[in-house]
Amino acid sequence: MAGMKFEYDENGGKFYYFLLSFYALVLIPTTYWLWPKQEKRRTTLHPEDKSNFSPCRNKYQLLNAGEPLKRFQLRAVKFIFIIAWIIFVILAYRVSLIELEHKDYDPFSILGVDREAAVAEIKRAYRELSKKHHPDRGGDAEQFKEIAKAYKALTDEEAKNNWKLHGNPDGPGVTHFGIALPKWLVDHKNSVFVLLTYAGIFMIVLPVVVCVWWQKSARYAGDHILIETAQLYYILLGRTPNMIVKRALMILGSSMEFEKTRNPAIVERPSDNVELPKLMKDLQDVQEKTKERPFQFPYSLKARALLHSHLQRITNLSENLEKDRRYVVKRCPYLINEMVSIEAQLVAMAHAGRLSHPPRLDSIENTMKLSPMIVQALWNTKSPLLQLPHITDNHLRYFESKKRTIKSIKQFAEMDNEQRRSMLRSITDEQYDEIISVLEIYPYITITVKLEVFDDENEHLVTTGAIVTLTVRLKRENMAVLFNKEQQTSNEQHHNLVENQQQDDENDKDKEKIEPKQKGWTNKQSKKKPKEKTAKQKKKPMTPQNKTSSTSPTVAPSSPAGTTVTTSKNSSAKNAKGDTNQRDSSDDESSKSSDESQSAANNNRDEKTSDQNESDEEQNERETSTTTVSKRTNKTQARSTATTTSNVEEDTFLEKFQQQQRKREKLETKAKISHRAFCPFFPEIKQECWWLYVADRKHHSLISAPVYLCTLKDEEEIEVKFSAPKTPGQYVYSVVLKSDSYFDVDASENLSLDVQEVKEPAVLEHPQWNFSEEENGPNPKENDDEFGTESDSDD
């Protein structure tokens, strides 16, 4: 019986199989993810990139300052990957050679004879090779064994059969299992070194790497924000339910990301002790003398001073402070979003009864205002027109006049081009063109809201405590749409005026041709006559149809009383027929006496009346049976319709649920790329993002948690859920979309809710237990006999 034998790779050839497979498993996905991807060349440049506005030029130079280093890094990465793939090709070639070296056992090739050689030729070849390779004559013993084995396989019948069946003249041999590791790796001489290497990799290096990674990841929440910063926000925001913008700015400056011991990217220099006090003298409301913790700490004072200098657009900072300010400003949008989410969590805790004084709506919106303040380097009290390039405080006085006051971006965009240019007559044409190019890319948002309640039977009925689902459709357009609308309206007005003038001219010409020249009083008289005719034509006489329709009597619906009336008429008619028959019989039997005729007539009348009563009873029984059957059929039809409607409702609910899941998956898988914002004072490229939430302006409360939307390119559909109020009544909410990049581009839509009281569900009886008197009647057995079988009726 064949056994098993494990063999290590003596020559190290099979080790290439293992090395090639492991190497390919690492190299292919690494190349896919880390290979430098070429950015698509933009056909149109962003206004920031081509503007001559000095902050735009400084930002462009700052962003492109590291381009040589980036290009060198990309080239180095490509070179490393090329070397790695060359090694992969060499390994693959080595493996292909190993496959070629593997050959099946062939005795003809060992003896050097043809496959059709005779036995004499085989013996002759064996003698010559044995003389040459015999060990007694100085030949190789192993090679002589192979020659003898091949000779035996071709001359001995048993060995020949074994070779044909098993591929070996000796019969079935041992099953060999090769281990793709070189033998020196498991040699007892090298076992100590191999064991130490194994222990070092798997017991020291790997646990240390995992421990370091876990410590770093455990310190951070989403967007790489320290958990200590989030805890600090919970404390400070919970203390101040009514928060102004300057207070929110102080909380933002106290983030732990700006403290050196928590963040190694922060650098503290001795020059800060000299430069920061000078900077604070030029700033207002920094509150450097406050004693509240952590606002009094040096790191918080420095960050707050740098933020104030950024909002006042101070440019004469030293190089070190400028670097620190850029880092602080970069981190602010992520920190502000974390502040907003924590405030929403505090509001949810207040709804659950775990917090007594949650942040008000004004506090949350003041926190949101920090983001456009930081991105545009502009205080919220300033005019939003200062976001545009080349517009300064000196130009704002031109926007206020007796005829019109321009205070918003939308008003400025809706102006006539000539008026707009006359207001900015102090700037050059090139600067004015840059202002218009920036104004054209500003966002213009329209909101449509659809309200649904999925859990209730009526989707549009809002009850107390129900979960309301708002489907908000957002459409984002450029502010250039307002320019186009202005041009279209002006062109339409001009076109309408021209058409009206042409029509008036044509009408005048027609009148001159048709109407003869008459005196004034005759013209007036002729004009009055058609008016009288038209007035008479309007008075239409009443047609016979109208008269009949107005005087036609109403027809009463059928009722059980009507059936009794018809039966009494039928019985009276039958009695009349009986009287006529009796008269005929009395005429025929005139010979009999009058007493006998009267007695016979009375007997006939009694018999006919009894027959008539029996027929009436049978007719009533049939009517009752038909009514019971119709009632039962109606009930079965109602049950079947109820089941079908319930099945339809279940199908529609499943379809809606699947649609919601698809929308969520689309939103989760979408890349966070919308439109590039124009922000020359922000040190990085910023994408437009938005907060979408539902608010109650009357009670200054937040209704739904804000959704941070970063994928609004053209159109977007988002679902916002919140619980309806617990008391019935009329409520007016606001669906608000607030930008984190611009001032004065927010959008809102009013939402009215008619909240009604929850109706108690009706108790439904089981159909087989609902026995009414109308169905069964006084004797249910009689009604059941109608639906019995023939055997039951016979019994």
The CATH superfamily name of the domain at 222-382 is: Sec63 N-terminal domain-like domain
Number of contiguous helices: 26
Helix content: 55-70%
User: Structural class of the helices, strands and pairings?
Assistant: alpha+beta
> What general outline do the C-alpha atoms trace?
elongated
Give the class-level CATH name of the domain at 222-382.
Mainly Alpha
Mean pLDDT: 75
Find the count of extended strands (DSSP E, 2+ residues).
Answer: 11
Distance between the termini: 85 Å
* Largest sheet composition: 6 strands, mixed
How much β-strand is present in the residues?
A: 5-15%
- Radius of gyration, whole Å: 50 Å
CATH topology category name of the domain at 222-382: Sec63 N-terminal domain-like fold
CATH architecture of the domain at 222-382: Orthogonal Bundle
Which spans have pLDDT < 50 for at least 5 consecutive residues?
513-602, 771-778, 780-795
Set down the secondary structure blueprint.
Elements: E1 4-9, H1 15-34, H2 47-50, H3 54-64, H4 67-101, H5 107-111, H6 119-133, H7 141-155, H8 157-166, E2 175-182, H9 191-218, H10 227-239, H11 245-253, H12 272-281, H13 298-311, H14 319-351, H15 361-376, H16 409-414, H17 417-423, H18 429-440, E3 443-452, E4 462-463, E5 467-478, H19 480-514, H20 520-538, H21 544-551, H22 560-588, H23 594-669, E6 690-696, E7 701-702, E8 707-709, E9 715-723, E10 729-739, E11 747-756, H24 773-776, H25 780-785, H26 790-794
Parallel strand pairs: 1-2, 4-11
Antiparallel strand pairs: 3-5, 5-9, 6-7, 6-8, 6-10, 10-11
Helix pairs in contact: 1-4, 6-7, 7-8, 10-14, 11-13, 13-14, 14-15, 22-23
Membrane topology: Multi-pass membrane protein
Biased composition (Polar residues): 565-574, 625-647
Biased composition (Acidic residues): 783-795
